Amino acid sequence: HPSEHLTSAPLDAPVDAITSPPPGNERLFNRNFIALAGINFCIMTSYYLLFVISSPYAVEHFKASPSLAGLVAGVMVLGVLAGRFVTGGIIERVGFMRVLYVGLALYCASLLLYLVTDSLLPLLGNRFLGGVGVGCISTMTGTIVAHIIPSNKIGLGISYFSMSTILGLAV
């Protein structure tokens, strides 16, 4: 039903079930918009923080050469690209919320795996896994937001949502 809220939609809900604001409710800053911008901000903040410290961490803890340390940083970007590529092809079949939750689960799992990573190869795999999660999350938050913004506020809404990414970098 088009008036369902994003947060109460089933995991495999079609796009219409989670995107149309209830009639007469054309507010830009509703709970779904704020929740998605918050998720995006938190993920982007942690992604950028991990990106900056990954090379020195690899050198200090695993005695990686500068080129391997650069690979440790860069493999996460490859994971993000892979996550975005895969996500774009499956969202219509699997459902917006399910893909978002899978991305969140992958990223959270990768964060926990840092606690037990004891060598360079598992670190590379973990960073790729985290990148896939970030790719899924960032694709889904942006896609869902583009669908829930009232049509008469689409430019403003995308601009405000994009600030959650930029603020994550600024922090």
Can you characterise this structure?
By secondary structure, the protein is mainly α. The protein is 76% helix and 0% strand. The chain contains six helices and no strands. The protein has helices at 15-19, 31-62, 66-94, 96-113, 120-148, 154-170. α2 runs parallel beside α6 (154-170), α3 runs antiparallel to α4 and α3 (66-94) packs parallel to α5 (120-148). It is elongated, with a radius of gyration of 18 Å. It starts with 14 loop residues before the first helix and ends with a helix. 36% of the residues are buried. Mean pLDDT is 87; it is low at 1-8.
Keywords:
single chain; about 170 residues; disordered N terminus; about 75% helix; elongated; mainly alpha
SSE class: mainly alpha
Would you count the extended β strands for me?
A: 0
Q: Which geometry do the CA atoms define? A: elongated
Radius of gyration: 18 Å
Largest sheet: none
**Helical content band:** over 70%
Provide a count of the helices. 6
The span between the termini is: 39 Å
**Overall mean confidence score, pLDDT:** 87
List the helices and strands and how they pair.
Blueprint: H1 15-19, H2 31-62, H3 66-94, H4 96-113, H5 120-148, H6 154-170
Helix pairs in contact: 2-3, 2-5, 2-6, 3-4, 3-5, 4-5
Quick description:
The protein is mainly α. It contains 6 helices and no strands.
